[in-house]
From TrEMBL:
Signal sequence residues: 1-29
Keyword Transcription regulation: no
Single Gene Ontology MF annotation: cysteine-type endopeptidase activity
Key words of the record: Signal
Full protein name: Caspase family p20 domain-containing protein
Length: 408
């Protein structure tokens, strides 16, 4: 079972995720497509900590929101260029396209460039030859009805030492920080992980502050993207103590929602339960992280359904709890928490389902209702219905929310 007795310092992603090939994650596309790029292991610029983790985490969130997802890890110039070329083939079939880039980026003469892992930059003149221009990406995205670019690439210039000598133009590139301001084209949103001309954090944990916040808030239902990105900004500012502040440049004229409730006749409760469980795959010795935002009227009961049918409750005392400005309470277990959810050698391999039942007041004193609710939730979750409501007899329906992860 999940061991909650001790902490692990870090969470390692399954090695299969960190490969250089494109990994198509199929979902019910519905005209939505996301290209997620994580350049981590550079041939001449060292290794970044989290791009592989960040793209894997975001793949789960975009996939859950109905996007067909393509993941590129450690993309070379040819691989990255081919992926951008393939975007143009989706004209007429995709109405919403998102591109996330995590890795090194450079600016030169007010233009931005994504740096492939095989780039060999020795002079200012070599930048355009060895990298992929963000201008070319914008040109490809411009014709789509809705497009979004998320840039988590504002790290320090890894080639600065190579560029210190030579001409004044070369020195200027070496001294530049972060990315330059770009102009959004068409119905487009461009989001920087931090302000232009400043640098962003790769993250002290398993994900960058920007990727973690974006992955979490993408799942927020019935929230227009301009509002959603304000919440992402708030989380990043809080996480970095004000050092890092994301910025959006938008030409969007169309309201966009990652998730809408099915019926417009249903009154939306703005304080719905939100859950994130990651990573998607773990092995013995690694940890599972949980973040759940619940309404103040709910007492969450966290549990894990193992593939062998065993239920393991996770006591609330193992969670950090944080009141949020919108009235919700955030419950969180991560490698930085007091306790961790570490996978043990004896844990059954296969698909686990971890989540919570949001218990209204009074049900806890009705043991028959509790047993009925847990049995009903287990039946639905094992049937693939990971979120919803179940009847609690004479009590109000109980909301539940679960996510899957695999022990290998």
């Amino acid at each position: 079972m999940l061991n909650t007795d001790f902490l692990r310092k870090s969470l390692c992603w399954v090695a299969a995720i960190l490969c250089s090939a494109a990994l198509p994650l199929q979902a019910q596309a519905g005209g939505r497509f996301a290209l997620l790029i994580g350049n981590q292991t550079y041939e001449t610029a060292g290794v970044l900590s989290n791009p592989g983790n960040d793209t894997a985490l975001l793949a789960q969130s975009f996939g859950a929101m109905g996007f067909e997802v393509e993941v590129l890890i450690d993309a070379t110039q040819d691989t990255l260029g081919d992926a951008i070329d393939r975007l143009s083939e989706r004209y007429g079939t995709a109405d919403t396209v998102a591109v996330y880039y995590s890795g090194h980026g450079l600016q030169k003469d007010g233009r931005n460039f994504m740096v492939p892992v095989d780039a060999r930059i020795t002079s200012a003149a070599s930048i355009e030859r060895e990298t992929i221009s963000m201008d070319s990406l914008i040109e490809v995205l411009k014709p789509f009805p809705i497009s979004m670019i998320f840039l988590d690439a504002c790290r320090d210039n890894p080639f600065a030492a190579n560029l210190q000598g030579g001409t004044s133009a070369t020195k200027s590139v070496a001294q530049s920080r972060g990315l330059a301001v770009m102009r959004a084209e068409g119905d487009m949103l461009i989001t920087y992980a931090t302000l232009p001309n400043t640098t962003a954090s790769d993250g002290m944990g398993n994900n960058s502050p920007f990727a973690a916040a974006l992955a979490h808030h993408i799942r927020t239902p019935d929230t227009e993207i301009s509002v959603l990105m304000k919440r992402v900004t708030g989380d990043v500012v809080a996480e970095t103590n004000g050092v890092q502040r994301p910025q959006q440049i938008s030409q969007m004229q169309t309201e966009f929602y990652f998730k809408r409730t099915p019926s417009p006749d249903v009154t939306i409760d703005p304080l719905r339960t939100l859950l994130a469980v990651y990573p998607q795959q773990v092995t013995a010795g690694e940890e599972v992280s949980v973040v759940a935002d619940v309404p103040p009227s709910c007492t969450p009961f966290f549990t894990n359904f193992a593939p062998d049918g065993k239920l393991t409750p996770i006591p609330l005392k193992f969670f950090n709890s944080i009141p949020l400005s919108n009235g919700q309470i955030r419950y969180e277990i991560s490698p930085g928490s007091r306790f961790g959810l570490a996978i043990q050698e004896e844990d059954p391999h296969g698909t686990h389902k971890l989540g919570l039942l949001c218990e209204p007041a009074g049900v806890g004193n009705d043991q028959n209702a509790v047993r009925t609710v847990i049995a009903a939730v287990a039946e639905r979750v094992n049937a693939g219905e990971l979120t919803g409501f179940v009847s609690a007899g004479s009590h109000d329906p109980i909301e539940y929310s679960f996510e899957s992860f695999t022990v290998r």
